[in-house]
Amino acid sequence: MYGLRRPVLILITLLLGPVAAFAQSERFERELESFEAADRVAPPTQGEVVFVGSSSIARWDVAKSFPDVKGINRGISGSELADTVRLLDRLVVPYAPRVVVVYAGDNDIADGRTSEDVAAEFEQLVTKVHTKLPQTRIVFIGLKPSLSRWTLVDRMRSANLMIRGYCEHDDRVAFIDIDGAMLGWDEKPRHELFVSDGLHMSAEGYQVWSFLLRPYLKDVRQEATSTRSNSPQ
Question: What pLDDT is attached to residue 26?
Answer without folding.
Answer: 75
